[in-house]
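Just curious. Protein, please.
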Amino acid sequence: MNEVLITNDAVVFGLLALCLGFIFYTSSITTGFWRKFYSIVPAVLMCYLLPAVLASCRIISDDLSQLYYMASRYLLPAALVLMTLSIDLKAISNLGSKALIMFLTGSVGIIIGGPIAILLVSIFSPETVGGNDFDAIWRGLSTIAGSWIGGGANQAAMLEIFKYNPDEYGKMVLVDIVVANVWMAVILFGVGKTKAIDKWLQADTSAIETLKLKVSAFSAKITRVPTLQDYMLMLCFAFTAVGISHFFGDAISEYLTKNSSAVADPSNFLSFLGSNFFWMVVIATACGIVLSFTKAKNYEGAGASKIGSIFIYILVATIGMKMDLTKILENPGLLVVGFIWISIHALLLILVAKLIKAPYFFLAVGSQANVGGAASAPVVAAEFHSSLTSVGVLLAVFGYVVGTGGALLCAYLMEIASKM
């Protein structure tokens, strides 16, 4: 039962392409069963679930594949360039402070949610959140905090700092993936009810609508039938930037790690600066922003962001491969901790959104910039409108900056909670 049917990445990639093609074709049908189905289940959620089903049935396996690495290291930075190519920084700044407030609220929700979840679960199942020395559950949960506030680099930093038992680490990865994906599904369900949610929140969405109209008007003005030259130049911009982001990302992370004790020390909140993935995302985003001040931004009219979206959806499919649905009930206690934790994060976001009358867009993207990072925040933002993708990108980058510091604070609070 543990054997995987298909281990050849070329075949696995073909299956993922088949899944994406099937989803996009059926979601374009405007009558009958499929119209009703996709009015309930968002298409982007299916892009996660179908690969997850294949992985759960042991047809494919993320453990035996390099496709996620390929998509996250090559296609993600290329997508970030193409999606920020036509970014309007002034229009984004006009969105005001609510986007940042909701992002920081999401971070606070993760920081306080962990220790509260431990306290609640300890009431009826103390063994679930117990453990001694390097088997202590709070040490493992610190890696989830790093992932949910920042990203993979911050998660790795927490594992290094608190030395959680490597043999038990897989359980934490499972909780991270399952809970984060379920929460993303909830957010995506909400996207279809944005107007109703915004009405309940009494949100002022005028700045968002203005940005949509401005970007849409610009796109309509420059839209043209793309030529082979257009496609080649867009790929040139994207993958030259990928090369630049890897070259300088590796160099900067190596230099800082060797020459700065603060960066080299995993317990320091500046340790995220030693991650080449962090610098890759930052530099790729910066390349896109720089290009937005040149005539290259007109390539949006030839479909730059659409090509970027293709790359992102391939990444989404490879992320789906990581979720084995058969393991969801393997660690029910830890999953309960995870769901209580993410619920506190969600409730705090809803409370603050209601108080400051923030649009659901800021709640959703602010949450995913924390929990999902650069791989998920642009996807969620694009579900609202393609012109809003860059907001998700910029907030996700900020998440990497605060990830290690926030996760450290959360971990120390969880240690205290576990001993109460």
User: Anything to note?
Assistant: The chain has a mean pLDDT of 85. Residues 15 and 21 are 10 Å apart (CA to CA).
